[in-house]
Design goal:
With 311 residues, this protein is of the alpha+beta class. 39% of the residues lie in helices and 14% in strands. The two termini are 24 Å apart.
Length: 311
Amino acid sequence: MAFFNSNDALQQIGSQTLEATWSEFPQLAPDQLALTWVVYNSPVIANTGGAISAKEFRKYSVRGFSYRGIERIYPASIVKLFYLVAIHEWLEGKMIPESVELTRAIRDMVVNSSNDATSLVVDVLTGTTSGPELPASPFDTWQHQRNIINRYFKSLGWEGLEAINVNQKTWCDGPYGRERVFVGKMMENRNMLTTNAVAQLLYSIIAGVAVSSKRSQQMMELLKRNLTPQNFNITGEENQVIGFLGEGLPPSAQLWSKAGWTSKVRHDAAYIQIPGYQPYLLVVFTEGQDSQNKAIIPFISQKIVTAMANL
């Protein structure tokens, strides 16, 4: 069961959006797209500033729609959302100390999607480091430590987190040494997420109940994206707005998001506020060679914006 309530109106709009996407981009196969869309009901429970407990928050409902929302997909840098929550949990519980370098790495991991910064965060979370292959017994211990992040998220008891795997670093060229052995010969131990799981985690951050209200606010500050066009080099590096959900939004919108991309996947997860509209949360995963078409995710975003005007 998803954390949101199915809704006939959203079901119809979601299905129409998918059909329009496949009509516009016929090379994108139905099994190369996954989507979760959540629309907030009134009163909107978001960025509560500590005014509501996690227990009370669970009593509120949201409407939602998902397509292949429980399918396990390689998440690329979307996994950094999970490392962001976990590192704040560790810091809040004083399991690890604050430091200037860790703070810098957390910021760069989310704001710039730095893989190097993520490597440090994963090392701190797990007490492990990358390096050459290890003998069997030390490697068993190392693997157990690396799975501490999985154990943390499963301890939350959320049904949507049962199928995830978040024990791998993110790479530019790929893993080497013990990291390559750990991911498996067929990459069977690579990170895997669902759009429903990502939506549920982002939903808790936006609500202010992930770890603590203060910690959630700190996370939101890192996820905030500036939609002013002059801030982007549209012909240069990825910026987590152009070619993603933010490109499909009107200038008046506010966006909190985390994107992920490789040569074979292109994803985005966002919480969006537009004046006069109900706030909503949208997670889109695309796979395959055709996912590299940077027009697909903005197209879906524009379709949802149009739909939101009529809800």
